[in-house]
Amino acid sequence: MRLLTHNMLTCNVKGVTKGYPLKIEAVRLEKKEAEFNPDFLRRIFPKLDWKALYETALSLDLDELPEQAEPSMLEDEAFLQKLHHVLLEVNLEEGALVCPETGRRFPVSKGIPNMLLNEDEV
Amino acid sequence: MDEVTVRRSMTGSRSGDETAIEDEDHPTCPDCISRDRAPDMDKRDTDRRSTEEDAVSGDEKGRACPCATCCTPQCDMCHTEDSARSSRREEAAELQPLITPPIERKYVHRVYDTIAPHFSSTRFAKWPKVAQFLESLPVGSILADSGCGNGKYLGFNQGVFHLASDISPRLVKICSSRGYDVAIADSLCLPYRDDVCDGAICIAVLHHMSTEARRRQAILELVRVLKPGGKALITVWALEQEDPGLISKWTPLIKEEQWLESNPEVVHHRQYLAGSDVRHRSERPVIAGSHCDKKPAEEATAAGRERSPRREHETLQRGSHDKQQGRDEKDGKEGECETEDMTRSNGQRSGGLGGEAKPVEYFVPWHLPYHRAEIASALSMGEEESLGRRNDKKGAVVYDRYYHLFVKGELESLVRQVPEATVVDSFFDKSNCCIHQLDEYQSVVKSVADLAGAKGGPAAYRVHKMDQVHMPTYQVHKVDQVQTPVEEEKAKLMQKWGFSRGVLGGRYTC
C-alpha cells in the first residue's frame, strides 16, 4: 500500500469524527520503483492532505518533504522527485493502520489493508 | 446491463453519511425499517428470539465475523459460522442496512471467495462504456473502484490513481498480485475520506445486494467519496432480457424446491422481505404468478415491486433534484404503490414486463470445473458444509450466486433518492454482455425498449447500435459462462474479433 492511498484512507467506524489520518504501525516497508510522472504529481497535489502526508512520512523516517508545501514548488524537479518517492514508491507491506481517535487497528498484510468493520462498528 | 452515469451536484449541502437519506417521510429509510418492523418481528419471532437471547453472550451480540480483526486477508475464520452469532446477525441485518444479511454473506461473499481464481481467469474483456468512462478521466484523477473484483479496470487508464476495494479477500489478493493498491472493504462503507475522488465506478456490484436500502447505501458511499462535480458510473444486471432461455437457467428465489425451502439464508431473506412488505413496498421482489398464492410469506412478497414502464417514464420526466420537489416525488411514488398494491391484491398484474411480472431475485449458477485446483477443498467437503453442489453431468461443482436483477428505471430511481447525485446519462447495454451475446440484434431490441423511455427513441437506438458495431470485443466478455449449443457460431465470432481459444483458457462453456 502506497502513501498516496494512505492519504485517502480514513477510519470509517460509526461515530468516529477524527479518524484521519490513520497512524501507520510499520512492520515492513518496501520500496517499489514507479514511473516518474510530473504531470500526474502536479494534478494529484491539490487533492493531498499535506499535513497528513508530512506527518506520516516523518513517522516513517522519511524526512524529505517540507512541512509546508505551495503549488509553486511543483515547478521544482527536486521537490517533485521527493514527492514521487514518498507518495508512490514507499509501500507499507506489513503492519497496521491505527485510528487516531479510537485506536482501532486495521491490519495490513502483504500490502493489503483490511478495512472491514465488525457489525457493532457500522 | 443497465448503466447510469451519476454526477455529484456542485451545489447543495453536504451531509456525508446515511443520515442524509433519513428524511422523516422517506418510505424506506433505515430508521423507519427498524422502527416500523419491530412490532411485527416481535410477534412473529418471539420464540426464535428468546432462545437466541439465551444462546448468545452479551459481548458477542452484534459482532461480525472475526475476519476484520485478524491479520490475514485470506483468513478462513470468516467462513466459520457459529449458529448463535449467525442468528444475531440475521436480526441485526434486518435493522441495519450496513450489516451484511446472511444470504449475501453466503451466496455472494463466500462464493466469490471460493471461485475467485476461476472467476478472475474469465474476467478480462473491458466493457466499452466503462472503458469510455475511464478514458474520459484526465491524468492525475483519483478514481474509486467500488467492488473491483479481479481489478480488470485498474490498469486501464495509467494516468489515473485508483482507490480500489472489494469485500472478497481472495479477489483483492489477485488484484494486489498484479501490483495494484487494493483494500478489503465493503462497498457500503468505503474507507476513504469525503470528496476525494474525481470519478468512481461500481461495476456489476449492486445486483448482489439483497435489499434496496443496501443498494442505495452503496450509491450513497460512491457519492460521498466523489468530489462535488465528480462522476460515477454504475452498472447492474437488467431483468429485461430478450433471451428467455437465459433467465430460465437461473433459479428464482421463490421457486419451490426442497433445497431452497430448507435453506436458512433463503428462508430468512424471504421473511425479511415479507416483513418489510407490510410498510416498505420498495423492498419487495417481483414474484411470478404461479407462485404468488402459496404461502403467507410469499403472498405478502408477491405484492411485487415491479414498476410499469409508464410509471418509470413519469419518474424520468420529473427529473428535478430540488430537495423539496424530490420529497414530493417520493410522496407521489408512495401513493402509486398503494394503487399498485390494490391492483395486485385483486390478482391483476401490470403489463410492464411483457404482460407478466417476473421474479427479480435469482440464484445464478457458477460452474467450477472439477479440474480446477480450487475445487479440491470443495469436493472433499460433505454436502452439508459445502457451498456448492456437484453436477457430474457437467463435470463441475455448481455455486449459486445471489442476484437482484434491476427492472427498467430502477437504477435511476435509486440514484435519485441519493442527495447530491443527479443522473447525467443512462443507457442500456447488452445484458451482462456476453451471456447471450451472439445475436447482436436481440440486444439492440432491448436497447430500444429502454432508451426509448430515457432518451426518446430512434436516435439513441442508432447510437447504441453503432457502439456494438464498432466495439464488438465486449461481446466476448464472460464467455466461460455461455451455455448455448452454438459452438460454431461462437468460434467464428471469436476468430473475427481476434480471440483465440488459448486466450480464453480453452473453454467457452462450463
TrEMBL record, chain A:
CDD domains: Trm112-like
Pfam families membership: Trm112p (PF03966)
GO molecular function: protein heterodimerization activity
Domain of life: Eukaryota
Gene3D superfamilies registered for this protein in UniProt: 2.20.25.10
GO biological process: one example: tRNA methylation
Record text on subunit structure and interactions: Interacts with TRM9.
Family as reported in the entry's similarity comment: Belongs to the TRM112 family.
Name recorded for this polypeptide: Multifunctional methyltransferase subunit TRM112-like protein
Lineage of the species this protein comes from: Eukaryota, Viridiplantae, Streptophyta, Charophyceae, Charales
UniProtKB/TrEMBL annotation, chain B:
Location of the Methyltransferase type domain: 145-234
Disordered: annotated segments: 1-63, 284-356
Keywords: Methyltransferase, Transferase
One record GO biological process: tRNA wobble uridine modification
InterPro entries, sorted: AlkB_tRNA_MeTrf/Diox, Methyltransf_11, SAM-dependent_MTases_sf
Gene3D superfamilies, alphabetized: Vaccinia Virus protein VP39 (3.40.50.150)
GO CC entries: cytoplasm; nucleus
GO MF terms held by the record: S-adenosylmethionine-dependent methyltransferase activity; tRNA (5-carboxymethyluridine(34)-5-O)-methyltransferase activity; tRNA binding
Record field: compositional bias (Basic and acidic residues): 33-63, 291-336
Superkingdom assignment: Eukaryota
PANTHER family: ALKYLATED DNA REPAIR PROTEIN ALKB HOMOLOG 8
Full protein name: Methyltransferase type 11 domain-containing protein
Species of origin: Chara braunii
